[in-house]
Specification:
By secondary structure, the chain is α+β, with helices and mostly antiparallel strands. 34% of the residues lie in helices and 28% in strands. It has a nine-stranded antiparallel beta sheet.
Length: 202
Amino acid sequence: MSMPPLRMQHWLLFVVIAIAFFAWGGWLMRSTGSVEPLPGMVQWQQRILAPMADGKLSLEQLNAIEGGELWLKPRLDGPQLVFRSELEASGQRWKLEAILVLSPHERTSLMAATGLKPTDPEQPLSSAMLGEMGQHALATLALRPEQPTAAEQITASFGPPRLRLQLNEGEGWVYPMQGLTAQIENDHVRLLHVVPKSTLTQ
C-alpha cells in the first residue's frame, strides 16, 4: 500500500522541528562549553599569587617579574609604600599594586626624610629606594583588569569560591587557601585582592 503524499503543512512542520532541534543543539553546546581560565594566571599563580599567599613574596622578587615604581603615600594613620606595575598576557592587561610591610620606625623615618605631611599627595620614589626596600615583604597585592573580564573565568582559574560575601557594590568571592578575594560586579571581575592566607584562615 502506497503512503499518501505529504502535504505542504507536513513539510513546514518538519522544517520547524529541524530548526528547533539545531537551535537547541547550539544552545546546549554553548551552555556546556568550557570557559577559558584567565590568561597568564597559571604562571602568575606560581610566581606571584602562591608566594604572596604563603607570605614569602618580597618587593625584589615582584619587581624582577615585572618592573615598576615605588610610591610614598602619606596617610593620617601612617604612610604607605606602594609598588605599582602592570601585567600582560594574551592582550589582557592588569594594573598591579602592592603595599609593603613597614615597621612604625620606618614609617616615621620616611615622613621625616621626605618632609611630607599626612595630607600631602603621594610622591614617586627613586629606583635607588626601590632597591633598598627590596627585601621587604608585602602586606597586600591587588590586580585590577583594564578590560572587561568575565566572572566565570575566576571559577575556571581557581574553582568555586569557599565563601561569597555581599559588598556595597557586588560580591566578594573568597578563596582562603589562596589568600584571594575577587570582587565581582555585574558578572565581571573588578579586582583581585591577595593577602597572606594566614590572615584569612585564622
